[in-house]
Amino acid sequence: MPDWSAVVAAMGKNFTEFMTRQQSVLAAQMPHAGAALPPPETARLAALQQQWLENQTRLWQTFVQRKPDEEPPAPVVQTDPADRRFRAPEWSRTPYFDYLRQAYLINSAFMRECVEAIPVSDGRTRGKLRYLSKQVIDAMSPANFAATNPEFIETALRTEGESIRRGLQNLLHDLQQGHISMSTPGAFEVGRNLAVTPGSVVFENELIQLIQYAPLTDKVFRKPLLIVPPCINKYYLMDLQPENSLVRYLVEQGHTVFLISWRNADASLAQHTWDDYLRLGPLTALDVVRDISGDVQPNALGFCVGGTLLASALAVACGRGEKPVASMALLTTLLDFSDAGEIGCLVDEAMVSAREQTIGRGGLMPGRELAQTFSTLRPNDLIWNYVVGNYLKGETPPAFDILHWNCDSTNLPGPFMAWYLRNLYLDNSLRIPGKLEMLGVKADLGKLDMPSYLLATSEDHIVPWTGAYLVRGLLGGETTFVLGASGHVAGTINPVSRDKRSYWTGGNESTAEEWRAGATEHPGSWWKHYAQWLVPLSGKKVAPPAAPGNARHKVIEPAPGRYVKKIATN
Q1: Is residue 532 domain-resident?
Q2: Is 520 exposed, middle or buried (0-12, 13-18, 19+ CB in 10 A)?
């Protein structure tokens, strides 16, 4: 038998040399390049390396001493209960795979700890290191490879190779369509079992269609509600199936709902700018809603970048001396981008300049590129989970409406995207009164003095809830901040019909941490809370409109309309 302790010692020496070279590379990319690591950091890294070597030595000794038919001993490292990759009994039942699993977990923890130990003062640089290390760690999981995944082998043997055939078939299908299947192919279709709340397109221009939904109650509130979804994705996240449609729920509460359906950008929109989106989007939609309803101050709601567009448009209107809406709701929205999460860490001067020199002069940001970027924020859940299931195990993913929507990507005009990255993510100019000019108006968010409902979600990987909380300090009116459970999408689309999860409400504390410490938890969906908040701002109950639109804005076609059905081809 080999001298395993010598083998492990050699492995440790080689890994230490690797880490030393890695530190040199990282140091060259940091401020004061070439300076030696200060003694505290050097000692910390040395301690981490020693702990790594001790853990690997213990694991190896356990491996070589274990007999194949023995029960697995106490693990050297515990698997996170939330980590679904290693839940199958095959990972601990066989010594070889048990070793692979634990060695990977030890190495992963070591890499994460080294990133935290590197002396980087710039938060954006540390965020990049965390992001990049996560991509490497998640990609190198033994679960992702046929030779090191016992579930692949077990499934292949049990199905006599049929799972391998299906996996290759799934891979070829996904290569052809250009993205990983996250939901059963063909299970959903917009207008058939998604986006089916009755309504009519009552207005369109080159950028939007405006949908007016049919009433579902005998009386409706006098004030209508305009919803501005994100232009980065298609609107029907707000109107999935009847049981989890936010649009349908609000209509059932007696609101006359209008909604913007953004056009999926093609070459004809390749020169459109942020100002074009404000002018042709929320500002035009509000004019049409006022004309059809006869109410000069509708309520408005924006989600994600739709909320950023809505708030920007309202700032332009207020800067012109208007009082554009009775209330504003912003769902998982950033207006102050100083706490923009991992996406913010990835946006730097070099990246933005490159975009400005290419698509910023006219062109398109492909929807697939945007979708891939968002998926890398949660690679285990949104990439590798499907690589293993679809290709290694030959499984068909379950039908899931949200993930079908997630794969239905949209293109964006390059000038719009470059402006957005430069002025909001990089320079963070919207939060500074008078710094940012839009449609000839110097924007001041402090002039938005209408009541505002602000929703964030506790596990949001796109809009950190602490970043969404900063909006409270920018607006001039009374704000109600609500924190929902779960992530960016699942926390927002939390229907009353299922009444899952929780939401928290609190007072007017100055910081997010103070607010969280004093917040009160409520079981169920935040939708009920928003509906109650909206009632006193919606006017009296009146008879519903006799028909959608009016003489100037006639019905063009039934909802969901043409724009939402256009597939991204770039």
Answers
A1: yes
A2: exposed
pTM for the full model? 0.91
Among candidate residues 373, 76, 128, 61, the one with its CA nearest the CA of residue 232: 373
Number of domains forming the structure of the chain: 2
CATH number for the domain harbouring residue 518: 3.40.50.1820
Mean pLDDT per 10-residue segment, the chain (570 residues): 42 47 46 52 88 94 86 89 92 92 96 91 86 95 96 96 97 92 95 98 98 98 98 96 97 98 96 98 98 98 98 98 98 97 92 96 92 91 96 96 94 97 97 97 98 98 97 97 96 92 89 95 97 98 96 98 83
- Tell me which residues are annotated as active site: 304
Helix, strand, or coil (residue 193): coil
User: Do 99 and 232 fall within a single domain?
Assistant: no
Which of 97, 120, 143 is at the close of a domain? 120
- Domain hosting 481: range is 199-342+424-565
Of 186, 290, 190, nearest to 235 (Cα)? 190
Find out whether the peptide bond into 560 is cis, omega within 30 degrees of 0: yes
Q: Cα–Cα distance between 446 and 430 in angstroms, integer? A: 11
In a domain, 246, yes or no: yes
